[in-house]
């Protein structure tokens, strides 16, 4: 990744800032993904545990919200990655 950059046009500080920005974007996506997994598993647990059978509406809400959150995270990740590439290359 760093090899693609023209060394004369960008300083070492800028290269490191670019790498930190890329890592921050990945961390943000992983936070979205982690929340997706928690909501999805919580929704399935509500369906499987007999004591929580009266909360099926909440289970459907958790599962649908999980997929919406995953889509938002993916769209945001690719949008920010595209903006990073457009700004520095």
From TrEMBL:
Matches recorded under InterPro entries: DUF202 (IPR003807)
Pfam families: DUF202
Domain DUF202: 20-82
Residues that span the membrane, as ranges: 29-47, 59-79
Annotated localization: Endomembrane system
Domain of life: Bacteria
Keywords in alphabetical order: Membrane, Transmembrane, Transmembrane helix
Membrane topology qualifier: Multi-pass membrane protein
Coarse class of the protein's main subcellular location: membrane
Name by which UniProt lists this protein: DUF202 domain-containing protein
Organism annotation: Gangjinia marincola
UniProt lineage: Bacteria, Pseudomonadati, Bacteroidota, Flavobacteriia, Flavobacteriales
């Amino acid at each position: 990744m760093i090899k693609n950059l023209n060394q004369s046009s960008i300083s070492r500080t800028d290269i490191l800032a670019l790498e930190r920005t890329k890592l921050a974007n990945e961390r943000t996506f992983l936070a979205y993904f982690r929340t997706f997994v928690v909501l999805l598993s919580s929704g399935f647990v509500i369906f499987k545990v007999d004591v929580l059978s009266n909360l099926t509406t909440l289970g459907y809400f958790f599962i649908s919200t999980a997929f919406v959150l995953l889509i938002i995270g993916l769209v945001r990740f690719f949008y920010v990655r595209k903006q990073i590439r457009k700004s520095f290359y």
